Each structure stands twice: as C-alpha cells, then as structure tokens.
Amino acid sequence: MNIDVVIVIAYFAMMILCGIIAMRRLTGTKDYLLADRNLPFWVFFPCLSAVILGGGSTFGSASQSYQFGMSGAWITFMFGLGIVTVGLLFAGKIAKLEVYTLSEMLQRRYAHGTGCVSAVIASVYAVLIAAVQIIALGTIIKELLGWSLTTGIMMGGMVTVIYTLIGGMVAITITDMIQFVLMIIGVLLLMLFGVNAAGGIGSITTAVPPEFLTLTNISGERMLGLFLSMFLGIMIGQDIWQRILTARNQEVAKVGAVAAGLFSVGWGAAMGVCGILAFILLPNLNSAQDALPALVIKVMPVGLSGIVLAALMSALMSTVSATVLASATLVTNDILKPVFKLRDESTFNVSRIVTGLSGILVILLSVYIGDVFVALDTAYSYLSGCLFVPIMAALFWPKAIWQGAIASIIVSAAVVTASLVAYGSAAPEPVMFGISSGAITLVFVSLMLGSSKDQLDGSGNPRL
Predict the structure, then answer these.
(1) Helix %, strand %, coil % for the chain, to 5?
(2) How far is 164 from 359, CA to CA, in rounded Å?
(3) Cβ neighbours for 287, distance < 8 A, ≥ 6 positions apart
(4) CB burial class (10 A; 0-12, 13-18, 19+) of residue 17?
(5) Is 60 among the domain residues?
(6) Model pTM score
(7) Which of 107, 277, 342, 412 could crosslink 194 through cysteines, CB 3.0-4.6 Å?
(8) Helix (H, G, I), strand (E, B), or coil: what is residue 219?
(9) What pLDDT shows up at residue 124?
(10) CATH code of the domain containing 301
(11) How far apart are CA 190 and CA 275, in angstroms?
C-alpha cells in the first residue's frame, strides 16, 4: 500500500470522525438540518463555496476544458454568476424566512399542497446532483486504486453518507471547513506542478489550438442550455437554500453568497487550466471524464498526489453531503411531516432515517447512471424547468395563486420529461420549453381565476 492510498484512507477516517464529533453536539431538528442558523461569515462563506463546487464544477469543467479549452469552464462560471445574483437579489430575503426548505416557502406562500408537489421535483434534483458527485468520486478512487468504477462509487458514497447520517448539518459544516482548505491547497499544487510539467505558460499557449484560449469555443446552443439550467437552476437548489438558511443574519447571507459566487468563478478558471494541461500532457485518454484524476497521477509526486486527490474528493464529498441532506429534508419536512403530523422529536429521528435511505438510493443510482453529465443535465433540467417560475412568482409576483403554481409545476414537469426523451439531457430545449410552458400556465391560470384571499397576509401582501 503506497503513501497516497494511506493518505486517502486517513482522510476518509477523518471525515467519519467529524461526523461522530458533530453527533455529540446535536440538540434537535434545527441543529441537524440547519446548524442552528448561526454561522458567521468566516464559516458561512467557505461552507457555501464547498457546496457549490462539486462534481459539475470540478470534474465537469475539467473534462469539458479537456475537449474545448477554457470555454469548457462555463459550467462553473454559470454556477458562480448564479450565486452572485442570489446574493445581490434575494439571499437576504431567503435568510429571514423561518423555513427549512424552498418547498416549505412555496407551501407558506400558496398553500393547498404546493409544497408537497414541489418537494417531489426538488428531491429528484437533489438525488441526481448527489449522484453526479459520487460518480466523480468513484472516478478518483478508480484512478488511484485501480478498482472498478462501481467499487469506487460504493466506497466513496458510503463514507460520505455515514458522516452525513450521524452528524447532519453540523457535521457537514465541520467537514466543509476542512474540505475548503484542502481544495485550495490541492488545486494550487496541481496547477503549479502541471504548468511546470507542460514546460511553462509560454509552451502551453503554443501547444493548444488558439480557440482553446477563448471563452467562445462551445456552441451558442450549449451556452443557452448552460444559462437556462445551471445559472437559473443554482439559484433555486435546495442544497444552496439550505446552506443560506444557516447564515447568522441577512447581511452574512448576502455578502457570503456574493463572495462564494466570485470564488466559484475563480475555481472555474482553475479547472479550465487543469483541463488544458491534461489535454497537453495526456492527449489519448479514453474518457474526458478521467482528465482531472489522470492529471494528478501524471504530474504529482508520490505523497503530494494523495493530498491533491483528497482535495478533489473534498470538493465532491461536500456537495454529496449537502444534497443527500437536502433530499432528506425535503422528504421529511414537506411530505412526511404534514402527512403524519410529526412533532420535532419525531422529525429529528425520521430525518436521520430518511437521510440514510436517501444515501443508499443515491449510491445505487450512481452505479446505474455512471456518467457525470447525464445526471447533471437531467437534474438541472427538472429543477430550472419546473420550479424556477413558481419560486420567482412566489417571491416577486403578488397575483400568482396556488392553482397557477401547481398547474405550472405539473405541466412543466410533463414538458421537461417529454423534451428529455426527444432532445436528450444536454440540449437546451427541456429547460427552455419547461420554463416557457410553466410561465404561460402560471400566468394564464392566475389571471383567469383571479386573486384568492388565502394567498395574502393580513396586510394584503403575498404570504411568506
């Protein structure tokens, strides 16, 4: 067993230890799901950044940059710019809501089961995003240990699910802080050794096609698809909202979101560089999905490569834990709790059970899908296509009514599903048609049926 394997195993053990430590601090549902809503900026900013920068932002951007150069990093750029927009426009509004989920916000605004309906769609998103991270995690383990992708997925997934299950959001906060630091150190080391192995910056610029150094080497259709799915979708992801709800106050939520978004843009640029380095040093890879871990093995000396691989796994595990917990929160808080009238103590116990079941489902789904981009594109197609319109209407359009919101979700879900079958997960049509059909449906139904008194609070404003 070489030193790199020892480092990775020690890292896994440390993550589980963090979960055990966090378990001893838990006092109830609020701690388990939202870390008691008390994170200061210096904790909130790295934790939100760690949630954003998962498999799509890391492996997705690097593999796309292996094929298209710097423009492959638009995946992460869209995520980062979307979070900056959240910080500027409505992070403060989210932070002040006394809710656990975006579906609970919809239920409070529209009532009549809207939260339950939206929770189903949001849960599908969270599960698929978790699958993206675990597939990428399995890819790293496959490259490091020579195991099959399936075995790597099982190993990495189980470690992440265990510490999330036992420690909840408190464990995720502790591990995210550690993972954020590791991510920065690991990527800086990888870029330093990679640039040196490629002969320096001058050699790099002459070794790639000129279009690799631009941000326009992908089609306009793909750019539109990334905007509609990634930029709009990241704004309304339960994993993002759940982390924003942990901020100590509205100011921390606003400033922390903008800072995390800008950091994510910088991370995207770093992944673009890593993808180009892999293109130069490893021109004959069987799969672009292997570009990042293969680059680590290629350029990093023994010992340091284990640290860098642990850093890359940090980026993935932070998002796995957040999305698994997000899925469990949606199911528990917005489906099981209202149906079975759960009290706080029961909700706490049920949350743990559902977290474990969600983790198992995600691992099995990851084995079945096996491809980062299929899961990523499908997840954001449903999220953006089905929920963006009713959520924005809940926040900004007082005339929206519950009949319009539910009709919008149902119609757009059907349209997105049909479009995915017809056009594929990478096409912009599923999101474009989903948002369009949802908006038309919500506006038409809301205006046709008129304002309902039960949509408004005592002052005549939208109820939130």
Answers:
(1) 85, 0, 15
(2) 9
(3) none
(4) middle
(5) yes
(6) 0.83
(7) 277
(8) coil
(9) 84
(10) 1.20.1730.10
(11) 11
Between CA 129 and CA 135 the distance in angstroms is: 10
Show the low-confidence residues of the chain (pLDDT under 50): 454, 458-461
Burial bucket for residue 26 (CB in 10 Å: 0-12, 13-18, 19+): buried
Q: Residue 370 has what pLDDT?
A: 67
Contact 309, 144 (CB under 8 A): yes
| Residues near 169 by beta carbon (within 8 Å), at least 6 away in sequence | 31, 32, 33, 34, 35, 242, 246, 325
pLDDT at 464: 55
Q: How far is CA 246 from the centre of its chain?
A: 16
- Helices assigned H by DSSP within 424-461: 429-449
Query: For residue 317, what are its two tokens?
Result: 């595990």
DSSP string, 137-177: HHHHHHHHH---HHHHHHHHHHHHHHHHHHHHHHHHHHHHH
Residue whose tokens read 């036992």: 166
Q: Are 79 and 52 in contact (CB under 8 A)?
A: yes
Residues 429-456 have pLDDT tens digits of 999 999 999 999 999 999 998 755 545 5
Rounded CA separation 102/350 (Å): 19
Domain residues for the domain of 112 are: 3-387
Q: What is the pLDDT of residue 372?
A: 61
Give the CA distances from residue 46 to residues 12, 289, 432, in Å, rounded to whole numbers and listed in that order.
Answer: 20, 26, 32
Residue 458, burial from CB neighbour count under 10 angstroms (0-12, 13-18, 19+): exposed
| DSSP 8-state assignment for residue 463 | P
Q: Is residue 430 part of a domain?
A: no
- The torsion region of residue 450 among left (phi > 0), alpha (psi -120 to 50) and beta comes to left
What would you report as the CA-atom Rg of the chain, rounded to the nearest whole angstrom? 21
Torsion of CA 41, 464, 230, 152, to 10 degrees: 70
Q: Is residue 401 within 8 Å of 446, Cβ to Cβ? A: yes
Residue 392 lies in a domain: no
Residue 428 lies in a domain: no
- 388 closest CA partner among 358, 368, 370, 413: 413
Amino acid at 228: L
pLDDT for the residue 451: 57
CA 213 to the chain's CA centroid: 27
State the pLDDT at residue 38: 80
Residue 462 phi/psi, 5° resolution?
A: -55, 135
